[in-house]
Design a protein that fits this description.
The complex is a heterodimer of chains A (460) and B (258). Helices cover 49% and strands 12% of the residues of chain A. Chain A is built from 18 helices and twelve strands. In chain A, the strands form four sheets. Chain A has a four-stranded parallel beta sheet. Chain A has a four-stranded parallel beta sheet with strand order 10-9-11-12. In chain A, strands 1-2 form a two-stranded antiparallel sheet. In chain A, β11, α17 and β12 form a beta-alpha-beta unit. In chain A, α16 packs across α17. The termini of chain A are far apart. Chain B is of the alpha/beta class. Chain B contains eight helices and ten strands. Chain B is globular. In chain B, α3 runs parallel beside α5, α4 crosses α6 and α6 packs across α7. The chains are: A alpha/beta (460), B alpha/beta (258). The interface between A and B is medium-sized, with 20 and 18 residues.
Chain lengths: 460, 258
Amino acid sequence: MRDVPRQITLQQWDQRYEQMQKARIAQPSYGGRLSRHVEDGDERLLKLRYDNSAAALRLWNFLLTEEDRLREARDRGKKIVGTMKDLGTVPVMAYSLDDVVAFYPDGAWWIPCVMELNAGLLSIADSLGIDESFCPVRAMLGAFLTGAHFPIPELLICSVGATCDDFSAIAQRLDGLGYPILWWEIPHRRQAEPGEESVRLPGGFSAPRCQVEFVKSQLQRVRKALEEFASQHLSDEKLSAGIRKANQVRRLLAQLRRLVFTARLCPMPALEMLIAEMLAIHFCSDRDETITVLRELLDEVKGRIKDGTGLLRDDAARIFWVNPVADLQVMNLLEDCGGRICGTEYLFTHALDAIPQDLPPMDALAQMALADPMVGSSADRASRICAEIRRFHAEAVVISRIPGASHCALEGQVIGEIVQAELDVPVLEIEVPSLTDSITQALRTRLEALVEAVRERRKK
Amino acid sequence: MICAGIDAGSRTIKIVLVDAGSMGVIAKGLTDQGVAQDRLTSELFDRLLKDSKIRKKDIRKIVATGYGRNAVSIADTTITEITCHAVGVRRLVPDAMTIIDIGGEDSKLIRLDRSGKVRDFAMNDRCAAGTGRFLEVVARRLGVDVPRLGEMAAHSRNPAAISSMCVVFAETEIIGLLTAGTPVDDIVAGVQAAIAARVMSMIGRKADLPIIFTGGVAMISGMDRALESALGQKVTVAPDPQMTGALGAAILACNQVA
């Protein structure tokens, strides 16, 4: 059922859902009216605008039923592992085992937004001494203590080292509260020094061989812990099969991004694309279903491009967006202001690259972990951003700071200066808290001004 | 054919009428901002037309800008203050490359390219330090009118160091300085330097010359020197600095009907 693409409200989605029901359009087991999630407390959904495709509905329902599916998985005897501060490596290992489900507790950083602070998770973090000077991911502490947003995992694995200071502090606080964590260390990526062997990593960065070996040894520890946890041998064959599956997800996302970011008319809104991209790092607790969800989205996008249809104005300013937003509504706002997303760097670009399949699996995973843009210098990250801006012909850049996130403190300025020096495109830095209602006008002015600047620059 | 630009700022509403043929300014006016900003804007607009003997039907297009632009019901369209200030300042200073705009409740840094188009910009509207609001708070605390601050700062021989970057805490600091017997002129000069330092943080590196200073705060003498001192670069106050946003809006309105 492909209608003219448009963005609709939650109420309109409910009406549309009724039509889909009457037309007997098949729904997945987790399907249903979107508004039912509001009844669960997800108040923010009332203020968002959504793509009107069945594929988008499936994506949203997939995202918003993760807790239910995790609890069902546990009831079916599956074991749950929380993979924290991990942008796409350990989940690949965990899903290579039978009867193990990995999920991403850090994802709780969106709960204050989606539930409009009603869950009180940030207040709980405050009471634990983790106040607003920390990243909104501190909501994770409240989610663990209330147990109301995800089942408490039997095993917690978290990377530490060249990761955000504030996240490490939050995870350490969690550990201290009686949720023991298996830590694995990721070093700050550097170039090989003279005399050291350099390894070219997926995505284009490089690191000395000794760092790759070190990360491999850390991941071996994780592998052993996972084997003990699952009472199974995690063979190279199983790992390779897991990598192939993960690459299926990554290939689908790569194709989706390329088509959406380069199409003449925008075929999929920024909000749905943000949610889709996030699937790369944790599969929303169901790797096989992730593949189905992404295939449907991709088919929808291909169909729209073929039909010459799409959303937004055809002269929408082509914006490259850096960092995910704490308030999802800002993605709608960008489009209201005349922009469209043409390129993103949501902190996990490496998880969109294929994991090498021609290497022993642990070597391949170690290389992927080191290819994380966040574990290297800001200049490294900026160079990758510049390459993506060129690739998608973006006309301006928005660097969205996450309040309290230590990596955002100085990185935005460094990235902005490098991008301007290399590409001479306008760069706008904004800060997006979990709820932007009180600063919407201020954000709107900035985004509108950026779009105006882009339109002026198009004039000869 | 006449076009109008309305800058609905946080402290004042400014209107400029421009002849679309000659691009010359026909009339301009200003009133304090208030709760009923749409009514205040309409009243100012009507007054301006009456004083200038212009009929409403002679106004071809109205562009609103500024913080309250979306609440101006007589406007045909809105354009952000970033774009409008850039156009307005360029009209008055054709080679301007950098614009510092300090208004009542925000401050902006706008970088232009050689052709006058906006290259990029930065805004501070979440913290009163670095805005005219800071000066208002200080004037109230010292019991003087805002326009007198410039004159007082000019008499300073040793500007006080205001270490706080928060207006609320700075006010406490000022009370401490007064108690310690610091001359009022030195406190005012210190506050101007603190605002300039805040603006400096938006620039981050050397700004391209010429740097043009606009907005209501540019009318307070001494602020340009405080900015020059912080930047280490020459800063020139725009002609009629409070009206540049409205002027830019009027010019853009003319461009839209041309």
